[in-house]
């Protein structure tokens, strides 16, 4: 069972995947909406994470033949099976979240001279 759980965890491992899945569990999003909803994510990283989630069958991508092109993302039926897990995490956070230390928001290297 250890190997199976490792594979399950790897589907959602990634800097932004859980946040993406949490948002998409609530509703369908366009790319720009997702980017605005996730502070700190770059366009490149969001694209990479969405592609991985799509390849794993957890997110579907719909492209509309419009000018400018419109792309919408939503979770698949397979990913909806994670709904109870996300709900359990929400319940856990509501009970214990205030006891979790706040970490500094800055990530990565700081610019020289700062």
TrEMBL record:
It comes from the Bacteria. Residues 3-101 form the HTH hxlR-type domain. It comes from Pigmentiphaga aceris. InterPro entries: HTH_HxlR (IPR002577), WH-like_DNA-bd_sf (IPR036388), WH_DNA-bd_sf (IPR036390). One of its GO terms (molecular function) is DNA binding. This is Helix-turn-helix transcriptional regulator. Signal peptide: none annotated. Keywords: DNA-binding, Transcription, Transcription regulation.
């Amino acid at each position: 069972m250890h190997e199976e759980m490792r594979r399950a965890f790897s589907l959602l491992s990634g800097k932004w995947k859980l946040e993406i899945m949490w948002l998409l569990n609530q509703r369908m999003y366009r790319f720009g909406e997702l980017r605005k909803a996730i502070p700190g994510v770059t366009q490149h990283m969001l694209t990479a994470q969405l592609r991985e989630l799509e390849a794993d069958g957890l997110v579907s991508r719909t492209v509309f033949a419009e000018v400018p092109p419109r792309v919408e993302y939503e979770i698949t039926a397979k990913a909806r099976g994670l709904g109870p897990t996300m709900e359990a995490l929400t319940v856990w956070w509501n009970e214990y979240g205030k006891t979790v230390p706040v970490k500094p928001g800055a990530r990565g290297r700081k610019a020289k001279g700062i």
